[in-house]
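Tokens in:
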């Protein structure tokens, strides 16, 4: 019985404590309290591993569990191959050997697998249905994967994540840390919009004022070169800059500020513009954003953003009157500065004074006045391509620059939320100097770090395990 298994563990715990008491007394006499705390924590981790192992072994040895394994294999359409010893990793990082049901995909009737005895079928992997139902991912506890992945995405490098985990009693190499992140991340990516939302989100977004910020960041990817290895034993690789595209969804309170009692939704992808809007569409459906009272899109002047908002609204059947589009005020000011820099003959003092006046007009939403003031400073009838480019920007977005009207309605005129999210999700981890990412690894880290930064890490993993239990 489970009680008897646990009783032996607690007897061992009491014995270990009695053996350590004399050493603790000596440490107290010396005032070395941190050493006692460290010893107690090590003992607690050891006992936690023993308790976990006892519970898991007891469960897997039951006849009911073996029968459950056969039923799960039948539901998945795989063939049971009996029971097998397998090494699993627990949440404390300890590895134990358990005996559980093992299954393989059924042989194809169309293909004759000719192989020698003992050889595996090519491209076929076995599975452990009972362990998978308990939340194990590649024979690793879900809580262990959660702990390792959190350290990997929070720390600036895998080496530092390795040191952090070692201080917690989890011995693991940097390569293994990356593998754990990729294994759990790829399982989550297929249902990312479902994992990051909850029923509480649907209640809070219903009838609320919702802000959606969209922008792009930068990171460097690596692609292995063809040919022989270098003299160092490594393959060379091509590196290029990529623009991961990110969005943030949050709600406003009555004063037009971000509500602190409702966690924002963050996500990013290396896909193109269509991919990020398809992902945003899924999030808006899953989280209930389509039922909001008002939806405000805030972004800079990038064409790939504004050209797709109307398509998004059409796909989700959102009333266009509920949508407000705002160009970030500070990006617009940068375009004023760029236009003035391109006009020859302006002294620095005159350019600064004119910039302040135009910024004031822009703040009041007087876009035509901004355009006229810039045009009248252009010398003669000469066309200045750089200035004309900036003027077309204001003409194209003048409806999105009604800043006085937006302030009266307590609508944000800046994209500070998405800029901050890009800095914390992308720049501080994936854009580090000398860092080059494989595309599939970068996609996983973008998603996982987005969940950590937004505060939805535990929700994401609990929804993932709930989905496993639901089959």
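Residues out:
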């Amino acid at each position: 019985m489970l009680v008897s298994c646990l009783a032996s563990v607690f007897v061992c715990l009491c014995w270990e404590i009695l053996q350590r008491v004399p050493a603790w007394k000596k440490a107290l006499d010396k005032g070395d309290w941190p050493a006692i705390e460290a010893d107690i924590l090590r003992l607690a981790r050891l006992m936690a591993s023993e308790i976990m192992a006892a519970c898991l072994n007891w469960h897997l040895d039951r006849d009911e569990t073996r029968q459950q394994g056969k039923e799960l294999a039948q539901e998945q359409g795989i063939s049971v191959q009996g029971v097998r010893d397998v090494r699993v990793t627990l949440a404390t990082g300890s590895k134990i050997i358990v005996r559980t049901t093992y299954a393989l995909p059924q042989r194809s009737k169309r293909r004759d697998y000719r192989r020698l005895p003992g050889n595996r079928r090519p491209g076929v992997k076995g599975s452990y249905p009972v362990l998978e139902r308990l939340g194990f991912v590649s024979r690793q506890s879900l809580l262990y994967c959660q702990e390792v992945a959190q350290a990997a995405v929070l720390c600036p490098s895998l080496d530092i994540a390795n040191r952090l985990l070692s201080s917690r009693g989890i011995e693991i190499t940097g390569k293994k840390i990356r593998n754990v992140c990729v294994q759990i991340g790829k399982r989550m990516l297929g249902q990312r919009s479902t994992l990051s939302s909850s029923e509480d989100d649907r209640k809070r977004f219903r009838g609320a004022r919702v802000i959606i910020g969209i922008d792009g960041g930068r990171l460097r990817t690596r692609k292995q070169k063809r040919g022989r290895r270098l003299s160092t034993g490594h393959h060379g690789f091509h590196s290029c800059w990529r623009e991961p595209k990110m969005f943030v969804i949050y709600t406003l309170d009555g004063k037009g500020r971000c509500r602190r009692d409702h966690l924002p939704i963050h996500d990013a992808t290396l896909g193109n513009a269509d991919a990020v809007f398809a992902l945003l569409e899924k999030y808006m459906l899953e989280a209930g954003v389509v039922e909001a009272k008002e939806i405000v899109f805030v972004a800079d002047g990038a064409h790939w953003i504004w050209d797709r908002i109307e398509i998004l609204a059409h796909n989700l059947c959102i009333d266009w009157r509920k949508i407000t589009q705002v160009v970030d005020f500070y990006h617009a000011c940068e375009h004023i500065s760029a236009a003035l820099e391109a006009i020859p003959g302006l002294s620095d003092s005159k350019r600064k004074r004119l910039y302040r006046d135009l910024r004031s007009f822009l703040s009041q939403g007087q876009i035509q006045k901004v355009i006229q003031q810039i045009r009248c400073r252009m010398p003669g009838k000469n066309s200045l391509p750089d200035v004309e480019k900036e003027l077309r920007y204001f003409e194209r977005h003048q409806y999105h620059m009604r800043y006085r009207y937006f302030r009266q309605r307590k609508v944000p005129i800046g994209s500070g939320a998405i800029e901050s999210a890009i800095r914390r999700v992308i720049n501080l981890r994936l854009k580090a100097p000398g860092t080059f990412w494989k595309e599939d690894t970068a996609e996983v880290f973008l998603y996982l770090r987005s969940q950590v930064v937004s505060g939805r890490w535990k929700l994401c993993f609990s929804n993932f395990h709930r989905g496993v239990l639901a089959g």
